[in-house]
Amino acid sequence: MAAAVGRRAFCFDGTTPPTSHHLRNYPSVREHSEWYASHIDELLRQGLVEAYDSKQHGPLRNFAATINPLHVVSKADGNLRPIIDPTASGVNDCMTKLPCPLPDLASILEHLPFQGALGKRDLASGFHHIKCSPEARRYMAFRHPTTEAVLRWVVLPFGASQSPPIFVELTNAACAIFQAECDRRGLRVKLFCFVDDYIILGVTHADVVGAFAVMDEIGGELGLEWKTSKDRGRNEHLRQLDFLGMLFDTEKMEMRISPDKRQRYAADVRALLDAAATGPVQRHLLESTVGRLTFIAR
């Protein structure tokens, strides 16, 4: 299934991205050059990126119609995430915009089983489940952070504007397949998927355990890999579960902001107010805090 979805990654709207072999990597790459180089070398070893070889690929333009600058950002858990910037190269502007349907978290509350059991799990290496078509790869090239060698992504890269909706198409399809098999086996569960995060709502703990087994078995057939270290609810009967920062409770039958997220949001607001008291604040900090407050209001 991943390969089938990958054949349409990426779709362009008829316009051709400009040649951008002149763009260079961002300063953030130099700051983490040793880590970045090691990371890229590992991706190359795994076959997730491929290197330009003039004997194999011919002229550089055949391998890389566009070379995107590299960037690195910090993830919520403190780790680093390598991304390319197809916006700077003009590639993102030429992509066909795809829908990215995500269920409202409140919809989980509507299906919450009274005194039922809960479980959750995450996909590992999310975007790497989907391969790009050979033609699309020509627009996903970048320069090695230390050697300047030209490489390109074989799988969906972080940074491309349509990577999330293409990946969501895969995970939503997988969720529907999991649900159908759970129904066929008589498991009283409801599954929801938010990008690469799955939540299981079960009438009993046995139902949830059965759903985990379905996701293991069918997920393996689909070529999906799970972060089993993050599985919750498989070995214990959970009536409360933190999912995407919201605490779901099958005893009180409610959804509320988890204590950890509440504390983080309060700290962010305090930091913004303290910064504003001494001078101008950066726009992205203001937008980020407003976004969190909007989330709470909703």
Automatic annotation (TrEMBL):
Q: Name one Pfam family in it.
A: RVT_1
| Domain Reverse transcriptase span(s) in chain numbering | 75-246
Q: What is this protein called?
A: Reverse transcriptase domain-containing protein
